[in-house]
Design brief:
This protein has 414 residues and is mainly α. The chain is 39% helix and 8% strand. The chain folds into 3 domains: 46 residues, no CATH class; 98 residues, Tyrosine recombinase, N-terminal domain (DNA polymerase, domain 1), CATH 1.10.150.130; 187 residues, hpI Integrase, Chain A (Orthogonal Bundle). The strands form 3 sheets. A 3-stranded antiparallel beta sheet has the order 1-2-3. Pfam families: Phage_integrase.
Length: 414
């Protein structure tokens, strides 16, 4: 009778023989993931120990024969190091700015001071969903952070599967806590001037601790004028702006002032010549009041080596985080507590204001182009705050009225 064929990941009968030196050798056939049946051997001081050692080997054995980039006995930290290295070299991968955020997120499950169950030292073959969940639970991260960490782990373990260091992805079985979908509101048009006044007062206050933030009011106004991301605005150079018509278009009535978004400032203060998405590189038309603001700045501002529209006191690019922290500080001050629009204002608040205004005058497609989104869905879902408009379709539904009053001649009630 022909020997029964083994299924992948299973082994046959274990045969044990005693060696001349008194130890025992256990042997069995095992079907690896490539479909090839191979014989494996393990020894032990006794027959039972030899059998147990071979069974333990089969439990840990993944039966894989990868390219050596990553192996089952490598650690989670080594896998993540490999994944980040590949992402940095990938043309279509995340930007360096995004990868920095990912590294920051992963500290919550890798560092012993962040979680009681750090993952970094675990061998890949020993990682189970419950182990990942324990690291996340003891870190006490928010639902949004948990979702981001899980996403990175899923992608990293997929890399291990690709290199045949694992047969399955333990991170996919970890439940992802739903993130509450709270649509943040823009600064209402009627509240913009109050917000501007508060920011200007704080930025130029004589008695305020620390140096003045003289650029902050103009930065906010330009965010309102363009809807740019804060990193895009801070990367703006005078060479990116056309405030006066070039000689060949001086008689062209269709010309208008505009700027070109063609870079951003990273969280480390470095200017890069790419945007968050491929749609981020875009031209933006300037309203007359923003043109006046820029002309005033160009006259008053001494030239700088960066050609930056907004330059720090040290002659460097402004950090996006510094602008965000200053707005956060203003929100905490009691003297502005009565300005409701300041309670959760951020650079993105003004971006939503612009998206909503453009949608009301034009449409969501125009708002998408202004903001540099790749999808109109993102613009509509997260940036546009549409007013409730009750459509009047009564001309149609009135035609469906009953031809006679159904209550005529009928008593009310049961």
């Amino acid at each position: 009778m022909a020997r029964q064929k083994l299924m992948v990941g299973t082994y046959g009968d274990i045969n044990c023989t005693k060696r001349a030196n008194g130890t025992w050798l256990a042997r069995a056939r095992y079907c690896d993931v490539d479909g090839v049946v191979r014989e494996y051997r393990k020894s032990g001081e006794t027959k039972n120990k030899a059998r147990a050692n071979l069974k333990a080997f089969f439990v840990d054995h993944t039966g894989t024969f990868g390219d050596g980039a990553i192996a089952p006995d490598d650690t989670v930290q080594q896998l993540l190091d490999l994944w980040f290295a590949k992402m940095e070299k990938s043309d279509g991968g995340p930007s360096s700015e995004t990868l920095e955020h990912y590294r920051y997120h992963m500290r919550w499950v890798l560092d012993s001071d962040k979680t009681e169950h750090p993952l970094g030292a675990y061998q890949l073959r020993h990682v189970r969903p419950v182990i990942i969940q324990a690291a996340l639970d003891s870190a006490g991260v928010s639902a949004d952070m948990r979702k981001r960490i899980r996403s990175v782990l899923v992608r990293a373990f997929n890399l291990a599967i690709f290199h045949e260091a694992l047969n399955g992805n333990p991170a996919t079985a970890v439940p992802s806590v739903p993130v509450p979908k709270v649509k943040k509101k823009p600064v209402a048009v009627e509240e913009l001037d109050a917000v501007r006044t508060a920011i200007r007062e704080w930025a130029n206050a004589e008695r305020r601790n620390g140096p003045k933030s003289v650029d902050l009011p103009d930065i906010v106004d330009m965010l309102i004028a363009t809807g740019m991301r804060i990193g895009e605005l801070l990367a703006l150079r005078w060479s990116d702006i056309e405030l006066t018509a070039p000689p060949e278009r001086r008689d062209d009535e269709t010309w208008f002032p505009w700027l070109m978004v063609n870079g951003q400032i990273t969280s480390k203060g470095k200017r890069v010549d790419y945007g968050k998405t491929h749609a981020a590189i875009r031209p933006i038309a300037l309203p007359d009041w923003a043109v006046a603001l820029l002309r005033r700045r160009k006259v008053a501002q001494p030239p700088n080596d960066l050609d930056a529209v907004f330059v720090s006191r040290n002659g460097t690019w402004h950090y996006p985080g510094n602008v965000q922290s200053r707005l956060w500080h203003i929100r905490q001050l009691d003297e502005y507590a009565d300005i409701a629009a300041l309670h959760d204002v951020s650079p993105h608040s003004f971006r939503r204001t612009v998206a909503t205004a453009i949608d009301e005058v034009y449409d969501a497609e125009a708002a998408k182009d202004q903001l540099g989104h790749t999808s109109k869905t993102v613009t509509e879902r997260h940036y546009i705050n549409r007013r409730l408009v009750v459509p009047d379709y009564r001309a149609a539904t009135e035609r469906l009225a009953p031809r006679s009053d159904p209550s005529d001649g009928q008593p009310l009630g049961p």
